Amino acid sequence: MLSTIYALLFYGATILIVVGVAAKIRKYAATPAPLKIPTTPAPTTRGGVVLRMLREVIFFESLFKSNKWIWLFGWMFHMALWLVIIRHLRYTIPGNTPWLLDFLQPFGKYAGFAMVLGLLGLWARRFLVDRVRYISNPSDHLILALLVAIGLSGLTMKFVAHTDVVAVKAFMSGLWTFKINTLPTDPFILIHLTLVLILMIIFPISKLLHAPGVFFSPSRNQVDNPREQRHIAPWAAELEK
Amino acid sequence: MADGDTNIPKLDDPLQVPCIKPGAMEGLQPFLASPEHNKALGFPEELVPDWKEKALAKMKELADKNRAFQVYLDICVKCGACTDKCHYFLGTADPKNMPVARQDLLRSVYRRYFTFAGKYFPWLVGARDLTKEVLDEWYSYYHQCSECRRCSVFCPYGIDTAEITMAARDILDAVGYGMKYSNEIIGKVHTVGNNLGLNPKALAATLEDLEEDIEDETGVSVRLPIDEHGADILLVTPSADFFAEPHIDGLIGYAKVFHQAGVSWTLSSYASEAANFGLFIGNYENMRLVSQRIRKAAKDLGVKRIIFGECGHAWRVAYSFLNTLAGPWDFLDPKYPVPQHILEFTWNEIQQGNLTLDPSRNDHMTVTFHDSCNVARGSRMGDMPGGQFEIPRNVIKAVCNNFVDMDQDTIHESTLCCGGGGGLLTDDLMDLRIKGASPRMTALQKTTEESGVTHMAAICAICKTQFSKVMPKYGYDMDSIVSVHQLVSNAIILDGQETDDDADE
């Protein structure tokens, strides 16, 4: 019964995040940028823009220029999150995982701590820095709380109260082929999965949209070539008729 | 106006971050545009009765028409990276002058009406209804942003508060709640052709006077032609260059460079304004109309190339937008970029060795350079990214022996706005202008103490006017701000010019 409920929740949440994010991406892609507004100095070629964007999403270049504390905590959290996600692929992909994933497995284990530490650092700033306190809404605190709780419940299962990870894998990987296997019922796995479900559901309606959104930011993704190449939005071209 | 009672902020460091003082600048509002000013720009004459519906409809329209607006409203994570980057926040400590908080004034309303979370859980995400108080708050704080883009450099997603400010002003104009300074000026450009409302006769007379001045000073006849058909170059320059100090000395500099380079050039009375205040109010249609004047002037006069004078926002619109707004420029000589900056021209002439320069004629000054915000972060000069920083400095160093840069954190892409940009260069905002200038002024004071800097050069009409007004408050003479081409003008020795050395002999 419980397994069925969670299976259905996962299907529902997956549909929401995929459709929701796809709809947002479609909206961003379909909305024209009427003017060339890269923050200069900006790359003068497409290739240069790709590099600029990679530096932004891999190293958080602009954030590094701005504030070393936010950069430290934010970068630590995001990079650790990647390692944690990679670790979790083994629990969700059916069968044996490729050697690279197996190699990265143990890193994800400790990345969990870095992830929580980074989040706590970011959260502390929301209380300690008067400027950041001023701009924080309840939702900003709650998202941090959600992510910290996901991290802590996961770490608890690894280091304190183990769950039957083989059964979890059977449940999660079964979902790919619409097989509902039995999910363990110890509290930490249920809390962990519930929180992840919440995260998936709120993703397309929250600030988590920064993840796909950054790639559509005209100040970062435009080529600095307005004199060489005429740029005009379809609605603006109408004005010329 | 509020001149007398402004407390000049004392900063130990140009970028010293204050503790927030909520409400510090509350209620500050520039004068409202009059019904005639609004009407001339195609806006409702005064606040319309159904302003709420109209404002929300305009917000939706902009979110559909401008990707930046849509994306920037959605993706801010409130990390706080921008909170200490705005010169108005540094100078006023009002938390609503922190870029993210300024965006949130509008984002909160967007969320309330256009997002799931804001519709059903407004308290959770800080969403709020659009009320008259909110509209007034917009009017106040979106006129405390100079659209300088400094915050966008430091945002991990490149969120540009200028885009939000422009959209907010566009919305305000759409409901008949526009600002006097910008709207009145745009009206003048539409009818007369320049911000100052100088008619062709007055312009021609001014230029004649300048020709006489140059001849008196140098003994050489240097022309400042206007409306000359068949000239090669159309010079488009801010109208302040015809009128204000130190701008006018820059105009003399351009004329001398053109003269010495031996090119034929002309000004246009029809397009006698480089600045495009359509940018300030975020209105594409008005920005386009102003730009189209330049296209028409270039066609009518039959020129081959277009060069812009020293003007910051003008250069952003010219470099980044002119091709969009008034292109394509296929009727001009394809050998030259359209448009070019006067500094690109002058630097090229210097490199070619076509100018005789005596930098010692600027020895009475130690000069620093203020990167104008919109040139630094919204445009380029030359072929390489960052040319907008190098070329002006190269030219200054070629004509000046004593050059010192200000703190690295306050120049190039991190440059601080003068405090008067983006449509705020009006006396009814003097208090804000003085406070907003304090980070730049503090950086300047540091170089004066450490390196004996006496003068600051700029390449923007607004910077020049703003500094000549606020520098006295910070212990400098009003003529401590100079045009870059004023330095060129001082150093250049025209063929046949009588110099002091000749007189001594």
TrEMBL record, chain A:
<protein>
    <submittedName>
        <fullName>Hdr menaquinol oxidoreductase cytochrome b subunit</fullName>
    </submittedName>
</protein>
<feature type="transmembrane region" description="Helical">
    <location>
        <begin position="6"/>
        <end position="25"/>
    </location>
</feature>
<keyword id="KW-0560">Oxidoreductase</keyword>
<dbReference type="InterPro" id="IPR023234">
    <property type="entry name" value="NarG-like_domain"/>
</dbReference>
<keyword id="KW-1133">Transmembrane helix</keyword>
<dbReference type="InterPro" id="IPR036197">
    <property type="entry name" value="NarG-like_sf"/>
</dbReference>
<feature type="transmembrane region" description="Helical">
    <location>
        <begin position="110"/>
        <end position="129"/>
    </location>
</feature>
<dbReference type="Pfam" id="PF02665">
    <property type="entry name" value="Nitrate_red_gam"/>
</dbReference>
<feature type="domain" description="NarG-like">
    <location>
        <begin position="67"/>
        <end position="211"/>
    </location>
</feature>
<feature type="transmembrane region" description="Helical">
    <location>
        <begin position="69"/>
        <end position="90"/>
    </location>
</feature>
<keyword id="KW-0472">Membrane</keyword>
<keyword id="KW-1003">Cell membrane</keyword>
<feature type="transmembrane region" description="Helical">
    <location>
        <begin position="188"/>
        <end position="210"/>
    </location>
</feature>
<keyword id="KW-0812">Transmembrane</keyword>
<feature type="transmembrane region" description="Helical">
    <location>
        <begin position="141"/>
        <end position="161"/>
    </location>
</feature>
TrEMBL record, chain B:
<keyword id="KW-0813">Transport</keyword>
<dbReference type="InterPro" id="IPR009051">
    <property type="entry name" value="Helical_ferredxn"/>
</dbReference>
<dbReference type="Pfam" id="PF13183">
    <property type="entry name" value="Fer4_8"/>
</dbReference>
<protein>
    <submittedName>
        <fullName>Hdr menaquinol oxidoreductase iron-sulfur subunit</fullName>
    </submittedName>
</protein>
<keyword id="KW-0249">Electron transport</keyword>
<dbReference type="InterPro" id="IPR017896">
    <property type="entry name" value="4Fe4S_Fe-S-bd"/>
</dbReference>
<keyword id="KW-0411">Iron-sulfur</keyword>
<keyword id="KW-0479">Metal-binding</keyword>
<keyword id="KW-0004">4Fe-4S</keyword>
<dbReference type="InterPro" id="IPR017900">
    <property type="entry name" value="4Fe4S_Fe_S_CS"/>
</dbReference>
<feature type="domain" description="4Fe-4S ferredoxin-type">
    <location>
        <begin position="67"/>
        <end position="96"/>
    </location>
</feature>
<keyword id="KW-0408">Iron</keyword>
